[in-house]
From TrEMBL:
<feature type="domain" description="Thymidylate kinase-like">
    <location>
        <begin position="9"/>
        <end position="200"/>
    </location>
</feature>
<dbReference type="InterPro" id="IPR018095">
    <property type="entry name" value="Thymidylate_kin_CS"/>
</dbReference>
<dbReference type="GO" id="GO:0006227">
    <property type="term" value="P:dUDP biosynthetic process"/>
</dbReference>
<dbReference type="GO" id="GO:0005524">
    <property type="term" value="F:ATP binding"/>
</dbReference>
<dbReference type="GO" id="GO:0004798">
    <property type="term" value="F:dTMP kinase activity"/>
</dbReference>
<keyword id="KW-0808">Transferase</keyword>
<keyword id="KW-0545">Nucleotide biosynthesis</keyword>
<comment type="function">
    <text>Phosphorylation of dTMP to form dTDP in both de novo and salvage pathways of dTTP synthesis.</text>
</comment>
<dbReference type="Pfam" id="PF02223">
    <property type="entry name" value="Thymidylate_kin"/>
</dbReference>
<keyword id="KW-0547">Nucleotide-binding</keyword>
<comment type="similarity">
    <text>Belongs to the thymidylate kinase family.</text>
</comment>
<dbReference type="GO" id="GO:0005829">
    <property type="term" value="C:cytosol"/>
</dbReference>
<dbReference type="GO" id="GO:0006235">
    <property type="term" value="P:dTTP biosynthetic process"/>
</dbReference>
<dbReference type="InterPro" id="IPR018094">
    <property type="entry name" value="Thymidylate_kinase"/>
</dbReference>
<feature type="binding site">
    <location>
        <begin position="11"/>
        <end position="18"/>
    </location>
    <ligand>
        <name>ATP</name>
    </ligand>
</feature>
<keyword id="KW-0067">ATP-binding</keyword>
<keyword id="KW-0418">Kinase</keyword>
């Protein structure tokens, strides 16, 4: 049975997207589901190399336009090389971040404007949008504290932005969720990890079953 569905995980830093994706992946494996779990920026060699450049804390001189274009370039390559083929093969695709991250981090956080950032992304990805997006909502101070508390988590060039930047990002996500309630499912990420995993698993399972 073809179950191609494109689901993205979005949210501010430390909201738990990566941790939850890992657990959901295990459950999909146990259910013998054909799926691809991937991330942005990255997921393939070229995009991982672009990721290194964007997130390197030493690259302090990077202009906001350059940053937006690099994210869009990584997204284009990742989409065409990995995501589209998986969807065409009938797989469930789960992706840790996608276009909404650019709309809020570059469009709102950096102040480039959502519509300008959307336009360069339309060039990068055409009409492809996620079927559903799970938005992990969390106060940025809590997410950043989670990252800092775990010494294994390195702070990247975006993590070290001011709290005010991260608060704009969160507000941007909540605004997007208001504008697109059909696509964006808002969840409260300020709960114990196992509770969040359970909720997200039920959402993913029902989306796949509805397909
Ligand atoms: N619900 C939770 N409660 C407490 N700690 C959590 C929870 N979810 C994740 N964490 C911890 O917070 C840190 C960040 O989690 P994770 O990497 O999953 O977040 P993320 O949303 O992917 O962050 P980023 O976008 O910055 O990569 C990790 O140390 C993780 O163990
Ligand atoms: C896709 C995308 C990401 N970002 C930011 C968000 C995070 O700070 C980093 C990615 O790190 P993570 O640990 O994998 O979450 O990049 C962005 O600003 N714009 C984007 O399009």
């Amino acid at each position: 049975m073809v179950r191609n569905i494109f689901i993205t995980f979005e949210g501010p830093e430390g909201a738990g997207k990566t941790s939850v994706l890992k657990e959901v992946t295990k459950r999909l494996e146990n259910a013998h589901m054909e799926f691809l779990a991937t991330r942005e920026p990255g997921g393939i060699r070229i995009a991982e190399e672009i990721r290194e450049i964007i997130l390197n804390p030493a690259n302090t001189e990077m202009d906001a336009h350059t940053e937006a274009l690099l994210y869009a370039a990584a997204r284009s390559q990742h989409l065409h090389e990995k995501v589209e083929p998986a969807l065409q093969a009938g797989r469930v695709v789960l992706c840790d971040r996608f276009i909404d991250s650019s709309l809020v981090y570059q469009g709102i956080g950096r102040g480039l404007g959502v519509e300008k950032v959307r336009a360069i992304n339309e060039f990068a990805i055409g009409r492809r949008m996620p079927d559903k997006t799970i938005l992990f909502d969390l106060e940025p101070s809590i997410g950043l504290a989670r990252i800092e508390a775990n010494r294994k988590n390195e702070m990247n060039r975006l993590d070290v932005e001011s709290l005010a930047f991260h608060e704009k990002v969160r507000a941007g996500y909540l605004q997007l969720a208001k504008e697109e309630p059909e696509r964006i499912i808002l969840i409260d990420a300020n709960r114990p990890l196992d509770e969040v995993v359970e909720e997200v698993w039920l959402i993913v399972k029902s989306l796949i079953e509805e397909k």
